[in-house]
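Table 4 source record.
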Amino acid sequence: MDDHDWEQQRTEAPSLRRRIWNRLKDVVFMVVAVLFLRTFVVQAYQIPSGSMEETLLVGDFLIANKFIYGLQIPVFDYRIKGREPKRGEIVIFRSPADDKDYIKRVIGLPGETVEMRENRVFIEGEPIEEEYVHVEGSSPPPQAFYGPVTVPEGHIFVLGDNRNKSYDSRFWGFLDETLLRGRAEVIHWSWDTDHHRPRLRRIGDLL
């Protein structure tokens, strides 16, 4: 092997190491970015029950905005304050009843008096329009009548759109805003579990 061959090997070896190192940095960056987005910005959720029909169906997969209502910083006992939830928004939260994630709609805000009569909601004695409500069954169950109750500060009152089939604030009380996980934004995938096929028309629907 002549001097030229030795010189070529010496110049190629560092180049290979640099390529490996750059590739490794790219992989680490992608992993950190995904973890950051999942922890602080967005997260995917699947709908397991019919409590939000017809707005959300079993088999819908959602993307949620985790930053909008504030964030609990892992490890540190510190929470970043976000904006207040608004009536009509669909929220994901940690249930105070069983410590599981649920998805419902914001109905009553802090300081408001909420009442239900035959599944119709009244705020401060006035009915509100709810085009999204879905009611199963011919006769209203006991939970179709509720209140009046006043929502305390720092809490909200949430209901499922499928009013006769939802385990919500009527059963376990007001939701502490610190338990909010995020706001549902868009359906990114939907699978019809009964017919074993995708619901292509639902993909991309904004919530």
